[in-house]
Hints:
Chain A is mostly beta strands. Chain A is 0% helix and 60% strand.
Amino acid sequence: GIQVEQSPPDLILQEGANSTLRCNFSDSVNNLQWFHQNPWGQLINLFYIPSGTKQNGRLSATTVATERYSLLYISSSQTTDSGVYFCAVGDSNTGNQFYFGTGTSLTVIP
Amino acid sequence: KAGVTQTPRYLIKTRGQQVTLSCSPISGHRSVSWYQQTPGQGLQFLFEYFSETQRNKGNFPGRFSGRQFSNSRSEMNVSTLELGDSALYLCASSLAYGGRIAGELFFGEGSRLTVL
C-alpha cells in the first residue's frame, strides 16, 4: 500500500502564530484530502486537493503530485484550531482505498 | 442535506460477543467505506462497498464483515470480539464514477466500541 508520512507529529503554537504541516506519500495518487479530527472523533473535511493550491479563510493547502507531497498552512492560529490533522490519499490503481498518515497533533495556547 | 449517520455512537461489549454497526450515507452517495482507528495502528481501511458489492477489503481477519443494502446503507459486523477490537469505527460516504471513488470522503461521527 501507499505510505503516508506526516510531519511534524506534534506542534505547539502560541495563538496568532503560523504553521505548516507536511504530508509525503510514496506513490501516485488520484485523491488527497486534509481532515481535522474534532475532540469527539469526527473527521472534518478541510480540503480536497489532489493537485494545485486552495485557500479557505486562514487555511490553505498545496499539493505537488509529481513530487508526492502536500502542505497545509494555518495562519493566525486560534485555540479552536487545536486537534489532530490528517492527510489521506487515494490509491490511483483501485481508487477505492484511502491511506492515512499518523497525523499532526496541534495545540494552540492562548 | 443530512450528513453521514452512524449508530450506535457508543457501545460496550465483552470478549466473544459480536457487534453490528450501521451507517447511512449522504443521499446520492453510493460508495460506503469503513475505517478503524486505534491509538496504536491509526486509521486503517476495513472495506468499501458500492452497489451492494464489496470492492476492496483491508488487511483484517474474517471476523470483520460488512454488507451494503440497495438504499446504500451499510452495516459492518465483528464476530467473536477481542480486546484489540476496541476502537473508533468510522464510516465514510462518497460519490463514485466508473467504479472509482470520485471526490471527497465524508465521515460520520463514528461508533466507539469498547471490548471488556
